[in-house]
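=== RUN LOG ===
request id: a7f3
mode: sequence -> structure
chains: 1
length: 87
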Amino acid sequence: MKKLEDREESLDLIHFSIIPWIAFTSFKHARRFRRADTIPKIVLGKVYNENGVMKIPVWLEVHHAIMDGIHVGKYFWELKLVVRQAY
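=== RESULT ===
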């Protein structure tokens, strides 16, 4: 049996969570303030229909030292295309 390894010093990590039971309007992760936390964090919520439009809440937190708004914009653009294809 493989064990989960603590790889927080690795540069190829993303903390990704899915909460398919709720449609949230905001989200907050617990933080470790002992050191710089540059790992991007993404949370997806429950897909729901609002006035005939399928929606999904997405929360994204990034550290500005490693990512600019252009990167966040590109992520949301690609995510929007994927979600449209799925629904």
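=== NOTES ===
The two ends are 37 Å apart (CA to CA).
The longest strand covers residues 15-18.
=== END ===
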